[in-house]
Amino acid sequence: MNTLIKRLALFGVLSIAFTALCAEPKQAAHPTAKPTIVLVHGAFADSSSWNDVASDLVVRGYPVVAAANPLRSVKYDAAYLDALLETIDGPVVLVGHSYGGMVISGVDSGRHEIKALVYVAAFAPEMGESAAGLSTRFPGSTLAAALEQPVALPDGSNDLYIQQARFHQQFAADVPAGPAAAAAVAQRPVTDKALNEASGPPAWGSIPSWSVFGSLDRNIPPEALRFMARRARSRRIVEIDGASHLVMVSHPDEVVRLIVEAANSR
Questions:
Q1: Is position 14 within any domain?
Q2: 195/168 Cα distance (integer angstroms)
Q3: How far apart are CA 194 and CA 75, in angstroms?
Q4: For 183-207, what is each residue's pLDDT tens digit?
Q5: C-alpha pair distances (Å), 15 with each of 11, 22, 89, 221, 250
Q6: Per the domain annotation, does 7 fall within a domain?
Q7: Residue 217 forms part of a structural domain
Q8: pTM of the full predicted structure?
Q9: Active site residues
């Protein structure tokens, strides 16, 4: 009887050990899981501007979140993104377009597991800089002349839109007329406060970055985009000949390749 009890006890120990061994590959696989790609749209756009990029990343097996950027102020929008990142487990790659670059630069990098930053025709500000200041630091932006009459808000700030008749050439010159017209109708306004608010300490100071933009960007001068990308020490800078400000719509393949490179970086 004692022998039987000992054998049963030994069988129980071996069963537990076998179960633990079977579980080890899953635990070991966790650190190599693909990071979540968080896409942050900019001013005069919405999350649908990422549709082609997002669908390609999903097919490649990446978890993807297209954040609804409030476009109210740099601090407010960065705090919103911080709150969103609190709900995501594991590493993330932050991808910002245009003003969205101000937002991903302003997150609390110490609170989250941010693997990389990808700037897509985006601002990469240094502390104290604003989107408006950076866009006029170098010649070439025609955005100011393309804006609609500001919409006055109760808090004293103003919502800004691009004139629909000028949206195609100003924002999306290399996008077909139909999709560009739809984007003009669906554009979301940004406040003048957001464009003029100074940025805090930049996340790119401690997180590796990648940059892609077009040579015919009429919102942010290409010279400004080159300057910011180099200053942020972007590991790869891709300039797409003839591309407009809405580069992720007109050239989603190139944008996806850069995001995947950042996601796979060490």
A1: no
A2: 21
A3: 8
A4: 999 999 999 999 999 999 999 999 9
A5: 6, 11, 31, 65, 57
A6: no
A7: yes
A8: 0.88
A9: 98
